[in-house]
Write a structure and sequence with these properties.
With 213 residues, the protein is of the alpha/beta class. It has one domain: Vaccinia Virus protein VP39 (Rossmann fold). The protein is built from 6 helices and 7 strands, in the order H-H-E-H-E-H-E-E-H-E-H-E-E. A 7-stranded mixed β-sheet has the order 3-2-1-4-5-7-6, sandwiched between helices. The protein is globular and about 45 Å long. The structure holds S-adenosylmethionine (SAM). The site of S-adenosylmethionine has 23 residues, from helix 3 and helix 5. S-adenosylmethionine (SAM) binds next to helix 3 and helix 5.
Length: 213
């Protein structure tokens, strides 16, 4: 019975990816499939869901569809500056060329909410803020799943500082752009943040996967 229900879960994100469009080029299908697969593993873990760096909602729409189809009562929080990326710091410099600059990927909160409207989905709790300015009361007390997609070193470090202390046992964090030569910030932030902590980390399609034991 357990195996059957796991197979059903695994099929859900694959089915959704067949059924609905990926609405931006900010995440490719293989990476999105990893993010959603890991999310599905946490549906029975206590806590809510956060996405830090939601942009136009490419991934958020699929997270919401999975939540709805699974009948979950979890809350979903989506965060973004909705002013585009912040400036890079030295930790984002790479010999492999420039990818992204401060101010790029600028979409408004209205545009994000409109994608949910068009998809006939209720939007997540959507918060416009720089990650470093988020207050305690703007985050769930307990997190079961986090997708961090802030592209730069400080953005990922700020996200980890917020998420890690709230992550439930069995909870999972996935981080985009891990191990990408032209965007070295995310991997550097992960290494710095976890250097004194025991974690299990692996990565697939530039998605780092960290599970709290
Ligand atoms: C690559 S996009 C995210 C793509 C999104 N996850 C999707 O699936 O469509 C990165 C987003 O992170 C946001 N961002 C990056 N650093 C941030 C920070 N420090 N505070 C707030 N937003 C930030 C940018 O505004 C941008 O929308």
């Amino acid at each position: 019975m357990r195996i059957y229900s796991k197979m059903k879960q695994l099929a859900r994100h694959t089915r959704l990816l067949e059924q609905y469009p990926i609405i931006s080029d900010q995440i490719k299908r293989p990476a999105l499939s990893v993010v959603l697969r890991e999310f599905e593993k946490t549906l029975e873990v206590d806590g809510d869901i956060v996405e830090l760096g939601c942009y136009i909602g490419t991934t958020s729409l699929f997270i919401k569809r999975i939540l709805d189809q699974s009948g979950s009562a979890k809350q979903f929080y989506a965060y973004d500056s909705f002013e585009g990326l912040p400036d890079k710091t030295a930790q984002d410099n790479s010999g492999a060329g420039e990818q992204f600059k401060g101010g790029e990927l600028n979409v408004s909160k209205k545009q994000f909410l409109n994608e949910f409207h068009k998809a006939n989905l209720k939007p997540p709790i959507t918060i416009k803020a720089w990650f470093k300015d988020l207050r305690n009361d703007q985050l769930p007390e307990q997190i079961s799943y986090a997708f961090l997609d802030g592209d730069f070193y400080e953005s990922i470090l700020d996200s980890l500082r917020l998420v890690w202390p709230r992550l439930s046992e069995g909870g999972i964090i996935t981080i985009d752009d891990y191990g990408r030569d032209a965007l070295p910030g995310p991997e550097r932030a992960v290494r710095d943040f976890f250097q004194d902590k025991q974690i299990s980390l692996h990565h697939e399609h530039n998605i780092a996967i960290i599970r709290r034991a």
